Amino acid sequence: MSSIHRADFSDKKILEKFSSAFTLSDMEIFIFPELFYPLVLANIISPVIWEWRNDPWFKDIEKKSFTYKSNRIKQFIIQNYVFNLDLSTWGLTTKTKEIQRFSDFFDMEMLRQSNALFGYEGDKYYFDIDIRKHFGLDKYDSEVIPYWKTETIEAMTAFRFKDSFTTGAGECVSLSSLYAAAMFIIGRIPLEKIFLIATPLHSQNFIIEKEGLLTNNRRIVTKNMWFNGTSLSAKARRALENEKVTIVSHISGYIHTLYENASIDKKSYELFSKHLREFLITNLTSQIFINFLRFKSRYKSLFQFKCECAGVNRYIPLEKVFEYEHNSKFNFSEETREQLIKEIEGDEFHLSPLQGKIIINEVETMLDGYKEKDLDYIEDEFYRVFTYEPAVVIHEMFNEIREFIQTEPRIPDPAKQYIKTDHPEISVDQTRKEIADSIFRMANHSELCLLTLYVHREMEKIDWLPFIKACFERNPVSFQELKGKSLKEVFNIINGLDNSSIYDGNRLALPDEVWNFKRGDGIEKALLFGDYIINMQEPAKISIHIEGSNVILSYSGISYKFRSGKNLKKQIEVDGSVYNIS
After folding, report:
1. Model confidence over 25-52: pLDDT tens digits?
2. Could you tell me if 561 and 473 lie in one domain?
3. Where among 388, 405, 422 does a domain terminate?
4. I need a labelling partner for 549 at 20 to 30 A (CA). Which of 48, 353, 373, 408 fits?
5. Does any domain span residue 122?
6. Higher confidence at residue 178 or residue 124?
7. Cis-peptide, bond into residue 200, ω within 30° of zero
């Protein structure tokens, strides 16, 4: 048996942190930002993504360009993982229960000011989308909130066993952690260049390579895509346009908007801030102006396009041109404009200029001549040249152009107390085993590495107390379906599940994972059964004896036997919320 890595679990805050390393709910990561990056490292030392290297899809990818690698990884993720935020997947909790968990060591008023589910409305954006209705919570009492647990790569991949799923799945934090690990393992992008960004409602990554790259759920967003005005880029822009960034996480540490101390390397954070701001700003060129009109449809009606056919000038409303874009592989950009115009029916064109509409060709010529001018100068020129358009409309349009071409990210204030912490030096040239060994070696003096062991479920190397606490306190998914059945029926249902674990070796799944994916090792089934008894029966007192292949759960004088393929030995005694493990 390997040596056990422990923390001071007599401290309630430390115990809650390490127990949260298994459930990894959005709220747990918000309160314990040091949990964010261990999930990335746990995915990196998992065998799952390393197996992707053997897939023909990634043949010789190490020889390819960054753009090729990014697109290849994106397409693989799109094909194999869907975005899932279903409320029933990981169950529901209540505001009162969560406040009781954290109020001893976290200012809950600060939580209300920063978390959408606890009353934070942020900008007008949150009022517009009606946050609880947006996530399907309007059918519940306002006290009810979702767990929204972040999945490991094993749990993401196991969704293919869940009803109504044919591929893997995960929520946005899971996908950002997956992308970070995949970019490192498959794309050979150093971890020093990968930053995880969390906002109250979203999580994405920023990669410092070339002009920069955002990973957004399953997709990627380049700088050109950020400004292309499509519906996809509009969705990608939402979080950074409308939300504060609460956490930036990196291999060197993290910075949190609410905490005075930051563990991220200060120079790394400065580099991130500089590159992200450069990514989110561009100049107003003729192409960017066209993209803006695609993005803000209300201004399309101000313009018309002039083209020549057989020596005759013809005119068409710009909104009509954009309508044709929707059903064409071509768009109104300079590269494919001619092909798009050829697809437009002849009777859509007029032989005379349309009264009251600005000829977009003239605007493009103006912008091409003003490449070195600032936006105020260009706006003044609009007033001067296009006098027949009301100035108030031009002014409103330029205010929205400013917002379109420059997003100021509301990232955590860099004026923090920077605390140096130990983190592993991980190279893209290392093997999975070399990386895992370095993390295991550092676990005694690096909290990042120690938490990685817990997130990764290294049961032979960790103290089981936080795991058992998580199992029996935050895994409610099976209760509703099993409610009302006799214990014998519940035992038979659970023991009848597929006898295989979603985790390799001696790593263990949580009860919710076993129930969702309808499979588990005997130890995992016993924990699921115990979870049901502890939360749904009186008295709530059980014992679980694990020794090799034999697993016995005892309750009210009756023994329930399970068979395990793991090689673990433990005695677990549970009396309500009191856990004794030996």
Report:
1. 988 999 999 999 999 999 999 999 999 9
2. yes
3. 405
4. 48
5. no
6. 178
7. no
Question: What is the number of other CB atoms lying within 10 angstroms of the CB of residue 175?
Answer: 27
| Residues 207, 86 share a domain | yes
Residue 1 binned pLDDT confidence (cut-offs 50, 70, 90)? very low
Nearest-angstrom CA–CA distance, 486 and 532: 11
Instruction: Classify residue 1: in a domain, yes or no.
Output: no
What's the predicted TM-score (pTM) here?
A: 0.92
**What is the 8-class DSSP label of residue 2?**
P
Cα–Cα dist 346/60, whole Å: 48
Task: Decide: 501 and 538 in contact? Cβ < 8 Å.
Answer: no
Task: Please state, for a pLDDT cut of 90, what percent of the chain lies above it.
Answer: 75
The radius of gyration of the chain's CA atoms, rounded to the nearest angstrom, is: 28
Largest CA distance in the chain: 96
Q: Which two tokens stand for residue 530?
A: 């115990």
Please enumerate in sequence order all residues whose Cβ is within 8 A of that of 133, keeping only pairs 6 or more positions apart, or say none.
none
Number of domains in the chain: 3
505 is in which domain, residue-wise?
465-581
Looking at the structure, tell me whether residues 297 and 440 fall in a common domain. Answer: no
For the four alpha carbons of 411, 177, 146 and 6, in that order, the dihedral sign comes to negative
Mean pLDDT of 541-553: 97
So what's the pLDDT on residue 68?
96
**Structural domain contains residue 114:** no
What pLDDT, on a 0 to 100 scale, did the predictor assign at position 169?
97
If asked whether residues 293 and 382 sit together in one domain, one would say yes
Q: Are residues 444 and 394 in the same domain?
A: no
Select from 393, 359, 546, 538 the least CA-distant residue to 460.
546
Distinct helix (H) and strand (E) counts, the chain: 28, 20
- Round to whole Å and give the CA distance between 282 and 404: 9
229: in domain: yes
Same domain, 256 and 295: no
User: What's the residue count for the chain?
Assistant: 582
Residues 446 and 472 in one domain: no
Take residue 357 and report the two structure tokens written for it.
Answer: 């509409």
Mean model confidence pLDDT for the chain: 92
Model confidence at 118, in pLDDT bands (50, 70, 90)? low
Domain shared by 388 and 489, yes or no = no
Reported as a pLDDT band with limits 50, 70 and 90, residue 116 is low
What's the DSSP call for residue 412?
P
Q: What is the DSSP string of 85-129?
A: --HHHH-EEEHHHHHHHHTTTS-HHHHHHH-GGGT--TTHHHHHH
Q: What is the 3-state secondary structure (H, E, C) of 242-253?
A: HCCCCEEEECCE
